[in-house]
Write a structure and sequence with these properties.
The chain is mostly beta strands. The chain has one helix and five strands.
Length: 88
């Protein structure tokens, strides 16, 4: 699944002596996409691709939040914030 992310920020973190890439971003989730997005979040296995920064790496969730927990009603849209850190 490809999402339209905004407020994309990249950083590096040191974990167990290894320099890893971290990317944080915001995105909107509609009622129609809610199920597919949450399934992917629960799987917690991502391939991050940021073409503008020439980045691609396997990642897992290091932080996640949402503005709404009930996107089951048609027409609702939630603001999601996600931080993914490169897998070791």
């Amino acid at each position: 699944m490809e999402i339209s992310a905004f407020n994309v920020r990249t950083d590096s973190v040191n974990k167990n002596g290894k320099e890893l890439t971290k990317v944080s971003f915001d995105f909107k989730v509609t009622h129609e996409d809610y199920h597919d997005v949450t399934v992917l979040l629960y799987e917690n296995d991502f391939v991050v691709k940021v073409p503008g920064k020439n980045l691609e790496f396997p990642a897992a969730i290091s932080s996640y939040s949402t503005s709404i927990t009930n996107l089951y009603e048609p027409g609702t849209v939630g603001d999601f914030k996600l931080e993914l850190t490169e897998k070791e």
